Amino acid sequence: MKKIRVYLFFLLGVSIATSCVQSNIKNGRYNNDATLELGEIEESQLFADKFDDFTIVPLENNREGLLSDVYKMQVTDSGMYFFDNASYPLLLLYSHEGDFKNRIGELGHKKSEYTNISNFSAHATGDAIDILDFNSLKTFSSNGSFISSITLEDEYGWDDLAFVPGGVMLATYHRGYDFLVSMFDSTFENRKNLLPVSSELIKGAMWGLNRLQCVGEKVCFLDPCNSTFYLFDINHLDDIHRIVLKSPNMLTEKVARENDGYLNGGYNFVQDFVYDGESILGTMSYEGRLCDFEIDLEKNAITLGNHIGFNYSFLCYYDRSEERR
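Request: output the structure for the sequence above.
Response:
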């Protein structure tokens, strides 16, 4: 039996709660096209009640591995990776028990070093880590040593990446490009473009480093400008499941184009989420307050609830599969 965990990087604490809303399934160019109407927030329940086990893991107070401004966390079989971007970018590895293990790579201008960390993704086993360094993709081992570097031919403005079976997926949250997501094979010689969009630029961007998430052969991508989730199967990339979140005050691409100050305009939008292959769980700004949500992908239904308890910074899903052991 596999053990499944959701990790939270937090400041104080959390909750998840529910309230049923109406779902409307449409026939479109997507294999499964759902529009989920957001309704009233009716109920509340503790986040911890959704899991069999809930544990707080304190991190070792190590001088070499001090964290101060964490942008992203990813948990793998090898441990917990943290991207810290305080005075300069760092990628650090801790054990599952919170012990500091080592630093991944070094800052510099050599081929074996990185000048910046735009984002990173670790293999599920944690034995390989890709760092997105502007238009370069640099691979390191879990002990921090350099493996390889690939220069991406087009400076596409990639914002996110994820290891997937047979290759790597790259994504952008911005507009001004022809596609939001592209799938590359392991050699980067073959590429399949997904989710075509208008190339017209939108001022500003919905910032975030975990909009593209992979669980086994399933992938979930959030287009934050349209409050829309896209679900892929690596073996059937043309069969896309689209889920659009809708409310009278929902952030959309049209709103973002017409309102330069949309980021501070009080619109409803997804702040963060975690995908476990069966559901999408996260937080959103909803009607002027922080709200928890859960999307049941089998039923195409969403539940909403007040956010109570401690305030976590972001979520991370980890599937501790016995098949990899």
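The radius of gyration is 19 Å.
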